Amino acid sequence: MTARSWATAAMICSVAMAGLVACETADVRTCGAGGTLETVDGSSYCVFEAGSPEDADAIMCPDDLVFRVRIGNILVCTDDGSIRSAADLPDTLCRRATISECGSAADAGSDDGGGRVDGGIPPEAGGGYRIEGDVVRGFRRGSAEGSEYRSACLEGQLMAGLDGVTSSAMAGSTHVHLLEPSCRRLEMDGSLAPPVEGNVIGTHCGGTLVPYEDRCPEGMVLVGLHGEIQQPCPPPGCGGDIVAELGLTCAPLDAWIADGSGATMLPDRGDYAGSVIQTFDDRCDPGFVVTELTGTQRCAAFSIQLGCHRVVR
Q: ∠282-68-78 over CA atoms, to 5°?
């Protein structure tokens, strides 16, 4: 049996013919202290109800439930991202959250989620800041080696950092090895909720690993990336160009929305001494912010590509 970290083993037994008792092991899912298990249309998820939105932001999801979204004072944890907004919640649960969307979004019941606009973000009462429209992707930097990846923030969130690990797989130099986006929910008033982690890009293939944490300064959001594509890829198991050095480009949200101003480039991570194939400085268009990264990966990111969404107010 492969057990989830948020499940406990139980024996389910039945009496068969001739009085024989047949038992089998099953998963009984639990959510831990303070959480309740909800099941809708065959999907199970954990719900944590807090006294305030700030208290909900401080709650940690069970390890295997990698998708988290706060809706008012309620935190919902899923393993498939099936709950992304108030429109996805059952009406009885939605009305327990301290939000105003339930009356229109959750009750509408239309095929497209009811009450959502453009890219699937529920409208906030009275307008305010929101992320809308379809993702706009930039140039893909690097090689086509490895398998495809996509690391995206949940709906209503944007990237405001990129944590990572550097590796010294080759003596005398380091390169970017693993990457993990840091996402923050854009609130109606333009403020940003506490950060949550996205999907990890790359795998551990050797060398001395040194973790780092790169976050945009408070009040700024991620609008671009800069760095170097280099060759050859350090061993083991690599066979193409890699994203060897990478840095963040951040900007104040209001200034970037207004005219694309205020961009600040943070220092690169990595100092790999390979052959430089390409130096890049990619940015979303003014008014757009980074919400996802795509590319190819193996031991490290072999290529990287920005995905941007428009922010309106």
A: 120
292 and 194 in a common domain: yes
Query: 272 and 152, same structural domain?
Result: yes
Q: Looking at the DSSP assignment, which residues form a beta bridge with residue 21?
A: 15
Domain range for 183 is 132-312
Are residues 292 and 213 part of one domain?
Answer: yes
pLDDT in tens, 40-88: 666 778 888 888 877 877 787 777 776 777 777 888 888 776 776 666 7
Same domain as 172, residue 46: no
C-beta of residue 277 within 8 angstroms of C-beta of residue 268: no
Q: Considering Cα of 157, then 162, then 163, then 165, what sign does the dihedral take?
A: positive
CA 12, CA 3: separation in Å to the nearest integer?
A: 16
H-helix or E-strand spanning residue 196: strand 196-197
Q: Which two tokens stand for residue 279?
A: 């130096």
Tracing tokens 């009305």 back to the chain, one arrives at 95
Distance CA 56, CA 70 (A): 7
Q: Which of 120, 253, 135 has its CA nearest to residue 184? A: 253
DSSP code of residue 17:
G
What would the mean pLDDT of 258-284 be, rounded to a whole number? 87
Q: Which band of pLDDT confidence, cut at 50, 70 and 90, is reported for residue 306?
A: very high
Instruction: Classify burial at 48, counting beta carbons within 10 Å of its beta carbon; exposed 0-12, middle 13-18, buried 19 or more.
Output: buried
115: pLDDT confidence band, cut at 50, 70 and 90? very low
Mean pLDDT of 193-218: 82
Report d(CA 230, CA 288) in Å as an integer: 28
Find the angle CA(75)-CA(163)-CA(200) to the nearest 5 degrees.
70
Q: Is residue 254 within a helix (H) or strand (E), and if so which, with residue range?
A: helix 253-259
pTM over 0.70: no
**Residue 123 is assigned to a structural domain of this protein:** no
How many domains would you assign to the chain? 2
Is the residue at 284 inside a domain? yes
